[in-house]
Design goal:
Layout (H helix, E strand, L loop, with lengths): L5 E6 L11 E3 L5 E2 L1 E4 L2 E4 L2 E2 L60 E10 L6 E7 L11 E4 L13 E12 L6 E11 L2 E9 L13 E8 L5 E12 L1
Antiparallel strand pairs: 1-14, 2-14, 3-13, 4-5, 6-13, 7-10, 7-14, 8-9, 8-13, 10-11, 11-12
Length: about 240
């Protein structure tokens, strides 16, 4: 679950803004996993907070980025981390108290977990992507998955749960994003574990603003299924 190392993301399911809905999917076309907004739903995106926006992605990371407000009682302007007294679940916003070197060749983790009720004879794969919502379904942007379609052969309306973690490494000079992932998806009394796997789709030319991640669900057929994320977060390691 979200903890003191969590710096960005969403945690919590329900009907409110920045919560995960019970998402009904009835298509064999891969679907982006979504989060609630004031106007409906949108693809759930989590972004490594660097203080650099898309419009200024070429700005050097040599400056102090993400300075915290002087009115934040848990932060001193001369330090880069929050006080150990400050814990909380993120809600679609990032903890931006970082120095310019927070992500420069330093590991971070992207984690998602949730539950699903698969339709009869249905199987599923959950994918994690580097990129904006448009990359869902693009194999070259995948940085993690829950393994082969599961459960093999499908079982009627059996609840499942799943988790997927990607550990990444990036720096602003090479702009290379590499790493590895692990995953587990369980259905009924059995589970499928994906051991530590190095990603083959090493991402190149990734700017600071490009450290964004989203997830997708690929079903085997059009039998209606329900999926609901419980958390989708980024952590410092």
């Amino acid at each position: 679950m979200a903890n003191a190392n969590t710096v960005s993301g969403y945690a919590g399911s329900g009907t409110l803004r920045n919560q995960f809905p019970a998402q009904v999917v009835a298509s064999a076309t891969e679907a982006a996993l979504v989060v609630n907004t004031d106007a409906g739903t949108a693809t759930a995106l989590v972004t490594v907070p660097t203080g650099v926006t898309a419009a200024t992605s070429s700005v050097s990371l040599s400056g102090a980025l993400g300075a915290s407000s002087a009115f934040d009682v848990n932060a001193n302007q001369s330090i880069t981390r929050r006080s150990g007294r400050d814990y909380g679940v993120p809600s679609g916003v990032s903890n931006d108290q970082f120095s310019s070197s927070s992500w420069n060749a330093l590991q971070f983790r992207v984690r998602l977990s949730g539950v699903a009720t698969l339709g009869a004879t249905q199987t599923a794969i959950i994918y994690l992507y580097n990129g904006a919502a448009t990359v869902v379904g693009t194999a070259g942007n995948r940085v993690g998955l829950t393994g082969s379609a599961y459960p093999g052969g499908g079982t009627a309306t059996t609840p499942s749960n799943f988790m997927l973690e990607f550990t990444g490494l990036w720096d602003p000079t090479s702009q290379i994003l590499s790493g590895y992932y692990t995953a587990n998806i369980a259905n009924g009394s059995t589970s499928q574990f994906t051991t530590t796997t190095v990603i083959t789709n090493v991402q190149t030319s990734v700017t600071a603003a490009g450290l964004t991640f989203c997830a997708g669900l690929k079903l085997a057929n059009t039998t209606s299924s329900i999926i609901q994320l419980r958390e989708f977060v980024i952590e410092q390691i």
